[in-house]
Amino acid sequence: MFGKLAKFLRMAGYDTAYVKHNERDKLVKLGVAEQRVIITKDPKIKTPDTRVYFLSENMPEEQIKKVTTEFNLDYKNAFTLCVNCNKPLIKVEKEKAKDKIPAKVYASLDEFYTCKNCGRVFWHGTHYVAMREKLKRLMG
Question: Among 12, 25, 75, 101, which is 20 to 30 Å from 134 by CA?
């Protein structure tokens, strides 16, 4: 239901688990076990053991605005988590990133971050600038 929202929250620096919409039991078990807030559209999801927040918005930007307001979120820890697997990013030496990035990026930048879990490499290029602007626009 909220895959884009989950990626955005991770980009903003929030530990965000994502469970596919057809795995209701898994979602509730995870939410309770890890004391997470469950964000859902599914009115059948109810549990007294953790908070359930119902989100009716369909458009990702509206979802982001609503969740940001409801939970008073900011982006001060942005770009500290892998948007794919939700694990912390760590700074990596330029040489160690060389085989995982385009040659043009390697030649023009010196700072790289990697996810120890999935191995993906991140850097502060044009996409980073655009995403930072999106964070500012949607999270104020």
Answer: 101
- What is the number of other CB atoms lying within 10 angstroms of the CB of residue 63? 23
Burial status of residue 38 (CB atoms within 10 A of its CB: 0-12, 13-18, 19 or more): buried
User: If we measure between CA atoms, which residue out of 21, 26, 25 comes closest to residue 42?
Assistant: 21
Residue 100's CB: how many other CB atoms inside 10 A? 14
- CA–CA distance, 110 with 108 (Å, rounded to integer): 7
- Write out pLDDT tens, residues 6-65: 999 999 999 999 988 778 889 999 999 999 999 999 888 988 999 999 999 999 999 999
CA 22 → CA 27, 37, 50, 114, 124, distances in Å?
Answer: 9, 18, 20, 31, 35
In which residue are the tokens 């995403």 written? 131
